[in-house]
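Subject: Predicted fold for Beta-ketoacyl-[acyl-carrier-protein] synthase III, 334 residues

User T.R. writes:
Posting the sequence so we have a shared reference for the thread.
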Amino acid sequence: MTATIKPAKGAPYARIMGVGGYRPTRVVPNEEILKHIDSSDEWIRSRSGIATRHWAGPEETVAAMSVEAAGKAIADAGITPEQVGAVIVSTVSHFKQTPAIATEIAHRIGAGKPAAFDISAGCAGFGYGLTLAKDMVTGGSAEYALVIGVERLSDLTDLKDRATAFLFGDGAGAVVVGPSNQPAIGPIVWGSEGDKAETIKQTVAWDVYREETDVRFPAITQEGQAVFRWAVFEMAKIAQQALDEAGVHPDDLDVFIPHQANMRIIDSMVKTLKLPENVTVARDVETTGNTSAASIPLAMERLLATGAAKSGDTALLIGFGAGLVYAATVVTLP
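User M.O. replies:
I've generated the structure tokens; pasting them so everyone works from the same file.
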């Protein structure tokens, strides 16, 4: 006799209920970066749009920053930590292969015994986590899911690399995803192009240290022009596809929150998508730098906190980076 398995019952739809962010207290201007590379403030600003970035201190660990951001998101969502049924952390700068940093974060925020795991999807990691959380809520495996994007990229920055020394910053952004009676997180458009994996990578693998003692600590390196061309010409297509999948026209958008990699990439995407002037565009990269998986939730948090965006606005999110991977979706802001 074949047993009948009772299916899980989830919410009809899911939405972002709350958002929180944490930026380290130390602000690093371009002048400090210029102590290590032959460049200028004008060159850095013209190439990337970055003026300052935040770098974490010894106590501002990946876990500590995540706990701060998560606490704000949970409070903003109006739920208790005990109600969180899943913790998803996207990061490339947690240096322990195991256990997942998500388990420590879940314990420290008082979440009880939720599912907890890390994902590695580079700068698209927040989009990946958001989609997993949405599917958990609608699939019935969690009523509320916490998604965190967090990085300490200052630990993986080669200060002598003129191409990347000025790019990266630290921080954590978090959202709570929960049940909704109407669609508030659109279909995901995501994918990977592994033939371009060498364009953004860690300089050496961790296992090198088992055999070689004179190897410099790993850093992130990238082929800047190749990444720029890919992002400018391909990601606008992915963003448009996400709009089409959600049935949203550019004229219907209120907010555009792209991964904060480079101001020129952001401006090019705005132009290619032909976004109306009334659409608020996140340009957090100027003062935060590239924080990889944390960049979209951090930019979202700042727009809402400053009033540049408001609850209920329709926003297009797109992340892209190492892999090369990408993820784009349309959401209703909390």
